[in-house]
Amino acid sequence: MTDFTPTEMMTIAAARALKNDDVCFVGIGAPSAACNLARLTHAPQITLIYESGTLQTRPNVLPLSIGDGELCDTALTTVSVPEMFRYWLQGGRITIGFLGGAQIDRFANLNTTVVGSYDAPKVRLPGGGGAPEIATNCGEIFITMAQSPRSFVAGLPFVTSMGHGRTGRERRDMGIKTKGPTRLITDLCVFEPDPETKEMSVVSIHPGVTREKIQENTGWPVRYAAEVVATPAPTAQELEVLRDIQARTKKAHGGSQ
Amino acid sequence: MTDFTPTEMMTIAAARALKNDDVCFVGIGAPSAACNLARLTHAPQITLIYESGTLQTRPNVLPLSIGDGELCDTALTTVSVPEMFRYWLQGGRITIGFLGGAQIDRFANLNTTVVGSYDAPKVRLPGGGGAPEIATNCGEIFITMAQSPRSFVAGLPFVTSMGHGRTGRERRDMGIKTKGPTRLITDLCVFEPDPETKEMSVVSIHPGVTREKIQENTGWPVRYAAEVVATPAPTAQELEVLRDIQARTKKAHGGSQ
Amino acid sequence: MARFMTLHDAVAACIRDGDTVAMEGFTHLIPYAAGHEVIRQGRKGLTLYRMTPDLIYDQLIGMGCADKLVFSWGGNPGVGSLHRLRDAVENGWPHRLQIEEHSHAAMANAYEAGAANLPFAMFRGYLGVDLPKVNPNIKRVTCPFTGEELAAVPAIRPDVGVIHALRADRDGNVLLEGITGVQKETVLASKRSIVTVEEVVDDFGPLNRNAVVLPSWTVTAIAVVPGGAHPSYAQGYYKRDNAFYIAWDEIARDRGSFLAWMKENVLEKGPEAFAAHGRPSA
Amino acid sequence: MARFMTLHDAVAACIRDGDTVAMEGFTHLIPYAAGHEVIRQGRKGLTLYRMTPDLIYDQLIGMGCADKLVFSWGGNPGVGSLHRLRDAVENGWPHRLQIEEHSHAAMANAYEAGAANLPFAMFRGYLGVDLPKVNPNIKRVTCPFTGEELAAVPAIRPDVGVIHALRADRDGNVLLEGITGVQKETVLASKRSIVTVEEVVDDFGPLNRNAVVLPSWTVTAIAVVPGGAHPSYAQGYYKRDNAFYIAWDEIARDRGSFLAWMKENVLEKGPEAFAAHGRPSA
Predict the structure, then answer these.
(1) What is the DSSP-derived secondary structure letter of residue C264?
(2) Does the keyword Transferase apply (chains C, D) (predicted)?
(3) CATH number of the structural domain D3-101+159-277
(4) Is the peptide bond prior to D94 cis by the omega test (within 30 degrees of 0)?
(5) Would you call D265 an interface residue with chain C, using a CB distance cutoff of 8 Å?
(6) Mutating which of C167, C174, C184, C188 best tests the A interface, going by the most A Cβ atoms within 10 A?
(7) How far apart are alpha carbons D200 and B185 in whole angstroms?
(8) Secondary structure of chain A in HEC code, one letter for each residue
(9) Residue B249 sits at the chain C interface (C-beta within 8 Å)
(10) Are D182 and A80 a contacting pair at CB < 8 A?
(11) Cα D151 to the center of its chain, rounded Å
(12) Domain extents for chain C?
């Protein structure tokens, strides 16, 4: 199967990282597509939770926002937002937090707050939302983002949510027991943290992608794991299910009622 | 109307103290009878709240416990117990807290914990339950208790919930903004706190009761307000409604199903 | 995911001697059948948490299962004393019982903090009262913005939470309705949990406004025990057996009559005995 | 007890220049009609609280009603930026906007603390991030039992809470169902409250499991405004107008087109205009 886009490859690779018994806190956008693709393919029992309070939801179309009616209609139950953050996220009930972001650094810290200085920003981004506490309260974190020199940067102007910290040692130094980012899935490859330094290192390269292309789209010298494998291309079934849900989604969100 | 018991007089006098727009946190036993009598007579819109989480309940029979199904079946809604104590009691939503107790002192502090020493008690009583926080979080407190030398005591072995404190000055000294006990309704009379000293002082004497009888049943020298009135005897309607609900209650609680 | 088990196996798998155990249910849905099973299996040295010990803990304490009780109101509601609790506290029978006493607000907040994975709960309380003098687990915390002092108690994080619920579905999701007390918090605050239910259904159907659903993956074991909350009640299934609560006063007042009742009704019976109190079959 | 009023009168009675105001609704039930009425009445100097400012605060900010914004995620969900918010922050148009920025967990806990009448909220959060460096309202509090440090933020206690709900009954009790966000907390945390509703009914009828009921005596004013949450949605009444959220990106990108849209659709309209978006009559 070669007829797929880098974004499709990214979503499919991210979906593959999820297991049937995961309890997943889903960010909007690419994470939501990956989580629902997993649910509709190899992980039908995966538990998806959105910060709007919907527990164990099974949307038929991808939500445009974190609180679409579709999420509530198809959930096992819906709780208030304070309860979601207190009992479910902080309560330690979530195995995987799935995040995206505007900028990332080599230790998988994320910035979604500002470009430039905080008080006089060049670009004001939306802010952290649930991410700061998702990043430390979930068992582990998956991140999915398209790579570019502007998004994969050597130094973040602002740390909105912590990955492995500015030096890779912050989580351990602070006594945080959760794992932090264990996987970063891009449109080019998959990174995992180096067991020692925690720097995100390429472990798998998507079909047709070169190391040069990865470096061109990364703002720091890319490190590779000792063993780097080739990401299997999307299967026909993966692509079909993904395109189906995206077509349903486009149709559902297109028209004003 | 002269055909009534002291307990009936107590319940009716307590009911009269309640207004239609009160939001009342109801203790079990005598307070519950008084609150529901008020609801079934002059205060049909009174809001009754029980600590089991039942908001705005309208029981047809008096509950034996604080969490009888009757309370839930007839409530506007039922919330969890943590929510009850956080949003509703501590939230400052309650105008009147209605308490009883095993022992009371002249400043309307209550003991429902132990007689004797705490570590080797002569009598182990049930404990505070909701009372310690009801006493300080409700706008004001009504107390209803039958008088006897053993229950109206000069010194409490244990303060389970604060009235006006050991000296009458504690609430002000602690910066507590709620009023504390503003009325103590017994089977003999009605006490209110002296505006200056906060010592509970008799303001109204029930029909047929003498000052001697009140003193015999009070473990401290009883003080009287400048103006002491006679409690109006129960009306025929008050007695009828009270006896009806107690008959229904007895019938409902009598038989094992 | 929750596993469906017999009550015997659920208690055997989840509760060990010396555990901290919370059996909750606020008048409604008190897990009596599970309590009886703990007595039959002879657990010892338990630290028992419960806001209102009720008859269930009177029984566990009288049978010697508990070393410590953490509670906020220890009476027979509307009736009077819990005689076995009093006998343990006042006379050390069957052995000395350590107690840690709180208010309802403290325990409700402490369960809430446990479910929220916080180390402590704070609230406006314990003002002008004597309990903080006898309970070292009542402290104060200062608001970093206003300087105001608030009461603080440790979060409750039991080894095992035990509740009775109305129904489970086949996936092991659990439904509570009516007065739900601190049961959701008890399960979420506990390392392991046992839920007894009246029945298993294909679908929960239409639900009341305050229904509480515990997803299957928050529960360790589910045991189907119709009538398992008797003599408390299960909304829509059976009513509170107020007459038994009144009768218990006589049964428990005397050590001998208590032991005889326990032998006949608990030690020589099994969970199936509760079915007689459940909803009559259609 | 809640009073039924026109939306005009409710806003006139409850919201004053300089007030702190929280208009909540988490994607679902965002009180747009009330926001438009505030704009029409020309309120100035407001401090606006809201987890997700959404288009409603883009409009209020762009029309110059707000001096300060307290928020945790300021985007157009699934679409992109809030251009009026960005223009105020980046360029000071129509005037400089002070911002106080939090995470969702902080704001959700702060509303919860406000409803619970606590001076501050504590939670496990803000670890390893830069927000505490730029927001002095993020502090730490120490557990008096374990010594652990937790994040602390002030409770949110607005002058006015504004929400949109599904229904009120004739006594003024208010019903929310579906995604209920922080709306109950917003009303309970606020000194005064305005609730717009789709309709008034004799009886709420059968309710979903997560229904939330606010008793009449917790609400100041109720205004019946069918369609009043458009372009957000009201579960069971009408769907989210995702196309409008997408279209807003173009409208709001330019100051002129924004002002023209506001003139035509807000300043020259009244609350009755929302009825076109409500549930079609039977």
Answers:
(1) I
(2) yes
(3) 3.40.1080.10
(4) yes
(5) no
(6) C188
(7) 41
(8) CCCCCHHHHHHHHHHHCCCCCCEEEECCCHHHHHHHHHHHCCCCCCEEECCCCEECCCCCCCCCCCCCHHHHHCCCEECCHHHHHHHHHCCCCCCEEEECCCEECCCCCEECCEEECCCCEEEECCCCCCHHHHHHHCCEEEEECCCCCCCECCCCCCCCECCCCCCCCHHHHCCCCCCCEEEEECCCEEEEECCCCCCEEEEEECCCCCHHHHHHCCCCCCEEEEEEEECCCCCHHHHHHHHHHHHHHHHHHHCCC
(9) no
(10) yes
(11) 24
(12) 3-101+159-277, 104-154
Interface partners of chain C (CB pairs < 8 Å, 3 or more) are A, B, D
Q: How far is CA B179 from CA B84, B134, B175, C130, C166, in A?
A: 21, 12, 11, 20, 42
Q: Closest to D27 (Cβ–Cβ): which among A68, A124, A131?
A: A68
Which residues of B have a catalytic role annotated?
51
Cβ-defined contact of A93 to C188 (cutoff 8 Å): yes
Nearest CA in chain C to A49: C215
What are the pLDDT digits (tens) for C193-221?
999 999 999 988 766 545 678 888 889 99
D274 touches chain C (CB under 8 A): no
Residue A201 and residue A224 in contact, taking contact as beta carbons nearer than 8 Å: yes
Chain C: residue nearest B121 by CA? C90
Chain B CB contacts of C82 below 8 Å: 126
Q: Is position A51 annotated as part of the catalytic site?
A: yes
pLDDT tens profile C12-52: 999 999 999 999 999 999 999 999 999 999 999 999 999 99
Q: Kindly report which listed range (A68-77, C13-22, C120-129, D45-54) carries the lowest average pLDDT score.
A: A68-77
Check A87 against C188: CB less than 8 A apart: yes
**Residue C119 near chain D (CB below 8 Å):** yes
Q: Which residues of B touch D112 (CB under 8 A)?
A: 86
Whether the per-residue pLDDT at A210 is higher than 80: the answer is yes
Question: Above 90 in pLDDT, residue A169?
Answer: yes
**pLDDT tens digits, B212-244:** 999 999 999 999 999 999 999 999 999 999 999
- Mutation pick from D143, D148, D204 vs chain C, by most beta carbons of C within 10 Å, is D143
Kindly list the residues from chain B whose CB atom is less than 8 angstroms away from the CB atom of residue D184: 87
Domain boundaries, chain A: 6-252
The mean of the pLDDT values for chain D is 95
Please give the angle made by the CA atoms of B30, B14 and C104, to the nearest 5 degrees. 50
Higher pLDDT, A145 or B251: A145
Query: What is the C-alpha to C-alpha distance for residues C178 and C234, in angstroms, rounded to an integer?
Result: 9
Selected residue of C127, C140, C233, C279 to mutate for chain B interface (largest B Cβ count, 10 A): C127
Is D36 in contact with D57 (CB distance < 8 Å)? no
Asked whether the predicted pLDDT for residue D282 surpasses 50, the reply is no
Whether the Cβ atoms of residue C18 and residue C282 lie closer than 8 Å to each other: no
Q: Per residue, what are the HEC states of D188-248? A: HHCCEEEEEEEEEECCCCCCCCCCEEECHHHCCEEEECCCCCCCCEECCCECCCHHHHHHH
| CATH 3.40.1080.10 correct for A6-252 | yes
Query: What is the reported pLDDT for B256?
Result: 38
